[in-house]
Amino acid sequence: MRHFRVLIPRVITTVLISWCALHGAPRAMVPQASAHAAGVLVCMSPEAYAYHDHVCRGLARCRAEVWTVSVQRAVAMGRKPCGYCY
Fold first, then answer.
1. Residue 86 banded pLDDT, cuts 50, 70, 90
2. What is the per-residue DSSP string for 41-73?
3. Which of 16, 39, 42, 74 suits 59 as a labelling partner, its CA being 20 to 30 A distant?
């Protein structure tokens, strides 16, 4: 019976991670620490208003330079979280 106390949480975690990988996870379920540690992307266009993660479709429209900055720097630049990726 002790084995099940250890095994069940591992199985549940593995199933949850697999499901999220296949179907996508709501952003509330995905840890953001690793993405923030690497920085966020900012389009340097005068019209740009958001910061993005590294796989955001919102950056496809950016025709200017894209910088990697910290979240704090992006906020200091007046940027808000992107509606697609955050």
1. confident
2. EEE--TT--EEE-TT-GGGGG--S-EEEE-HHH
3. 16
Q: Please, are residues 54 and 84 in contact by the beta-carbon 8 Å criterion?
A: no
Q: Is 32 helix (H, G, I), strand (E, B) or coil?
A: coil
**Pair (23, 38) in one structural domain:** no
Sheet holding 66-69, edge to edge: 66-69, 40-43, 50-52, 80-81
39 and 5 in a common domain:
no
The rounded radius of gyration (Å) of the Cα atoms in the chain is 18
Q: Which of 81, 39, 42, 85 is nearest to 62 (CA)?
A: 42
Q: Which pTM does this prediction carry?
A: 0.56
pLDDT in tens, 4-41: 555 566 666 666 666 556 666 554 444 444 545 679 99
